[in-house]
Amino acid sequence: DAKTTQPPSMDCAEGRAANLPCNHSTISGNEYVYWYRQIHSQGPQYIIHGLKNNETNEMASLIITEDRKSSTLILPHATLRDTAVYYCIVRVGPGNQGGKLIFGQGTELSVKP
Amino acid sequence: GAVVSQHPSRVICKSGTSVKIECRSLDFQATTMFWYRQFPKKSLMLMATSNEGSKATYEQGVEKDKFLINHASLTLSTLTVTSAHPEDSSFYICSARDVRDEQYFGPGTRLTVT
């Protein structure tokens, strides 16, 4: 599975958009980009995933560059409850059993009032 | 979304004893389950992958005789930490993958070995 690089920490003002970058320059053609987050002392929570098109759901938007070497997770209106460690992970996607979620160090997002 | 539970949520045991942690997928059948451990202020580290009815596959450096994994059914996997020592104290998290290949995580079990 390809590795990812994320900034170790970021701050965001409450109510503003949080843009979390991720580099995955060695991603393979059949690997998806997954985002999870972990609030302190809880299990990781799935946010969103995508292959090459931009994706949006009720939690966030995922923007993947055309060359797929990087992506950005966008939380459109961050709240204090969004304070967490955000993990960007690449793995073979749905329909390809066998891919593993290997966690990097993630980005610690602090949403401030 | 799908729900994965773990029991117990916290456990304290004495050095030398064994501890069993259960992981259940409550509303779906899990084709594959995973076990992770996490030390304070560190990321999750994958320990092993298990499929129902077969032996678990352990990641490099994880002792299979120390961390016994049983995946007896499509909704239950157990991790037994045998002869626990203080260095085994950690946050253990299980994860279950459904037939659509989506993966969900349990709330974690905090193990403290005294």
Walk me through the structure:
By secondary structure, chain A is mainly beta. Helices cover 0% and strands 46% of the residues of chain A. A five-stranded mixed β-sheet of chain A has the order 1-9-8-3-4, with no helix packed on it. Chain A has a four-stranded antiparallel β-sheet with strand order 2-7-6-5, with no helix packed on it. Chain A is globular and about 40 Å long. Chain A starts with 8 loop residues before the first strand and ends with a strand. The mean pLDDT of chain A is 92. With 114 residues, chain B is mostly beta strands. In chain B, strand 9 and strand 10 form a beta hairpin. The mean pLDDT of chain B is 93.
Write the layout of secondary structure elements.
The complex is a heterodimer of chains A (113) and B (114).
Chain A (H helix, E strand, L loop, with lengths): L8 E5 L4 E6 L7 E8 L6 E6 L4 E2 L4 E4 L5 E6 L8 E9 L14 E6 L1
Parallel strand pairs in A: 1-9
Antiparallel strand pairs in A: 2-7, 3-4, 3-8, 5-6, 6-7, 8-9
Chain B lengths: L3 E4 L2 E4 L5 E7 L6 E7 L5 E8 L5 E2 L8 E7 L2 E6 L8 E8 L5 E3 L3 E5 L1
User: Span between N and C termini of chain A?
Assistant: 37 Å
Q: What percent strand of chain A?
A: over 45%
Q: Name the strands of the widest sheet of chain A in spatial order.
A: 1-9-8-3-4
Task: Give me the strand/helix succession of chain A.
Answer: EEEEEEEEE
Distance between the termini of chain B: 36 Å
Task: Tell me the fraction of residues in β-strands of chain B, as a range.
Answer: over 45%
- How many strands appear in the DSSP assignment of chain B? 11
Order of helices and strands of chain B: EEEEEEEEEEE
Radius of gyration of chain A: 13 Å
Which regions of chain B have little confidence, pLDDT < 50, spanning 5+ residues?
none
Summarize the biggest pleated sheet of chain B: 7 strands, mixed
Largest interface: A-B, 21 and 26 residues
Give the rounded overall mean pLDDT of chain A: 92
Low-pLDDT stretches of chain A are none
Taking Cα atoms only, what radius of gyration of chain B do you get, to the nearest Å? 13 Å
Number of strands of chain A: 9
Helix/sheet category of chain A: mainly beta
Compute the number of helices of chain A: 0
